[in-house]
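Note to self: keep these together.
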Amino acid sequence: MNRKNDLTIIWVALLTVIATGALIGFFNMSMQTLMLTVVLFVFVVSRGARMATDVDRAMLAWVIPVAFIAKILGASVRHYVAVFVYNRSADALVYHRRAAEIYADVWRSFEIPVITSRGAGTNFMEGLTGFIYVPYIPDELGGFVIFATLALLGQMLFYAAYRRALPAAGLKRYALGIFFLPSLLYWPSSPGKDSIMLLALGTATWAITGLFQGKWLSMLPILAGSLALMAAIRPHVAALLVGALGLALLASRAPKIGGGIAIRMLLFGVVGVGIAFVAVRLSAAYGLSLDTNSLNEFADSVTDRTATGGSQVAGRAVT
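Structure:
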C-alpha cells in the first residue's frame, strides 16, 4: 500500500510539473496567476482529502489532484480560444472585464451594483463575478482559473452525492466521468453562468441526497440557497430540479427520509414554495405569463438571440 501511495505521489508530481510548464510556456501564465493556481490546488486537494472515505480514499488521492490539473488546462484552452479564436467576443471576457474594472470596486464600497444593461441572468452574473473578485482581482487567465475551480467543487459535490446515494455502484467509473468528461473540462471553466450553475447543481444534488438520508434540517437551507442561486441565473433549470425533487418524494419509500407523514408533508410544502418562487423568477426574468402568446414570443426571442450569436440550427422552436 505504501509503495502504491508513493507511485501516486510521483505521478501527480510529474503531471504537475508538465502542466506547469505548459501553462507558463504555451499559455503565458503570469507568476501571480501561477501562485493563485497553487493556492487553489492546495485548497481543492485538502477538500478532496476531507471528503474521502475508506471506500475511495486511495482513488481520490490521485483523482482529485489530476482532475484539478486537467481542469486548469481546460480553462487555459478555453481562455486561448476566447482570445484568439473568438477575437475577444466571448461572454466570459466581458464578465471578467466589467467585474474587474467596475463591479468589484462597487462591492468594495459596500454597495450593491445596479446592472440593467442586459438580461436578468447576465446582469446577475456580472455582479456576482464582481463580488467574487472583491478579495483579489486576477488577470484574465486567473479569472478563468477561479471559475474553473468553482466548477470543480461542484463536480466534487456531484461525486459525493453519488457516493452517498449509491455507495457500492461503480464509484471509479462515475469519478472518471464526472471529473474527466471533455465537455466538463472545457465549457464550465471560465467566468460565466456554466461554472456557477455546475457549482449550484452539485450543491443542490448533494443536499437532496442528504434529505433522503434524514438530514433534512441541515440540508434544507443548503438546498434553498443553491436553488436561489440557480433561479437567479437559469430559473428554468431550477424549476426542473424542483420538479424532479417533487417526483422523487412521491416515488420514494426510503425510511430514512424520517419523521413520518409530518416531515414528508413539510418537504412537499418546501417543494411547493420552491415551485412558486421559481415561477415568479421565470416571469420576472423573461416577462412570461402562462398563456400561449407569451410562450410563443419567448420562443421567438430565443431563436433571434441564437441567430445573432451564430449558433442557429435548421428548423424552428417547438411550440
